[in-house]
Design brief:
GO terms for molecular function: zinc ion transmembrane transporter activity. It is a multi-pass membrane protein. Belongs to the cation diffusion facilitator (CDF) transporter (TC 2.A.4) family. SLC30A subfamily. Keywords: Ion transport, Membrane, Transmembrane, Transmembrane helix, Transport. By secondary structure, this protein is mainly α. It has ten helices and three strands. The chain has a three-stranded mixed β-sheet with strand order 1-2-3. It starts with 9 loop residues before the first helix and ends in an 8-residue tail after the last helix. It has helices spanning about 10-35, 40-65, 80-110, 115-135, 145-175, 180-205, 215-225, 255-260, 260-275, 290; strands at about 230-240, 245-255, 280-290. Helices cover about 65% and strands about 10% of the residues. The protein is elongated, with a radius of gyration of 25 Å. Strand 1 and strand 2 (about 245-255) form a beta hairpin. The chain folds into two domains: about 10-205, Alpha-lytic protease prodomain-like, CATH 1.20.1510.10; about 215-290, Alpha-Beta Plaits (2-Layer Sandwich), CATH 3.30.70.
């Protein structure tokens, strides 16, 4: 039996809209600052911010599509578009990191002049904006993979802005222009772990891995503790999209319990899943002892 679920509230959408407006503002500021100062580090941070903007736009579109009603052909609607959007976002990050590395190598060999004062001023504005963005997205990061992706990228931007600020101070103090490509590579290196973390989570959902926070053995133990349950087999758990875990299982039940009715059994099993493991959508096949005998060993 399955039960309903809700996903993707208006609060998350509002956070994404505000984060998008903020990211667009910072993007323009850093592009202007990078061109005026001649700093690759600022342009690298702007490139990262461009992926934020693209990711946020994709997330908003996917969130809207995910709210479309389900049909007989698409029984979960378009909820998984959110996961695909997050995957595209992660790929953008990898591409930007590669471009930064290539451009940094070119500038290492022939470093151009950099106006450290302008570089410092524009990076400071970017840092302040990133702090505001983190505060906007922090609450929703645990409940949505796209909010989480945007939140992680904001962290990368904040660290990137800090690196640019340190680089600008270093150039002003020493006059060594190669600090700029060095800082740019640091920005790229900070991008990669976050991109991989997001992509790994997306892949886990798409290949229908068991959710990280769910232990199927614990579910089995909980169910087997009930006096009417004989055994549990064919357990499967996966995620439709962030915050929507799904589970199916075959549960062998004592014949005398079945004789008293199927409704209370299913209600008890589903209540256990919802109350202890936060799984609202489940499909449970109840089997009598004689029918299930010799079959439960075939699958875990």
């Amino acid at each position: 039996m399955g039960s309903g679920h809700s996903h993707g509230g208006g609060d998350n959408r509002t956070r994404l809209v505000w984060a998008l407006a903020l990211s667009l503002t910072v993007l323009v500021i850093e592009v202007v600052g990078g061109i005026r100062s001649g700093s690759l580090a600022l342009l690298a941070d702007a490139g990262h911010m461009l992926t934020d903007v693209a990711g946020l736009l994709i997330a908003l579109a996917a969130m809207s599509a995910g709210r479309l009603p389900s049909t007989s052909k698409k029984t979960f609607g378009y909820q998984r578009l959110e996961v695909l959007a997050a995957g595209v976002n992660a790929c953008f990050l990898f591409l930007v990191a590669g471009w930064i590395g290539f451009e940094a190598w070119e500038r290492w060999q022939a470093p151009p002049e950099v106006a450290s004062g302008s570089m410092l001023a524009f990076a400071s504005v970017g840092l302040a904006a990133n702090i505001v963005g983190l505060l906007l997205l922090r609450k929703g990061a645990s409940g949505s993979i796209n909010i989480k992706g945007a939140y992680l990228e904001m962290w990368g931007d904040l660290l990137g802005s800090l690196a640019v600020i340190i680089g600008a101070i270093g150039i002003a103090a020493t006059g060594w222009l190669r600090i700029d490509p060095v800082v740019s590579v640091l920005v790229a290196v900070m991008i990669l772990p976050r991109a991989w973390q997001l992509l790994r989570e997306v892949i886990g959902i798409l290949i229908e891995s068991t959710p990280d926070d769910l232990d199927l053995d614990s579910v089995r133990v909980h169910w087997l503790s009930k006096p009417f349950v004989v055994s549990v087999h064919d357990m499967h758990a996966w995620t439709i999209t962030s915050g929507v875990p799904v589970m199916s299982a075959h549960v062998v039940v004592r014949d005398d319990a079945l004789a008293r009715g199927l409704g209370p059994i299913l209600e008890d099993l589903r209540g256990c899943l919802d109350g202890h493991f936060s799984i609202e959508h489940s499909t449970i096949q109840v089997e009598p002892e004689d029918l299930a005998e010799g079959r439960e060993h075939l699958h875990p």
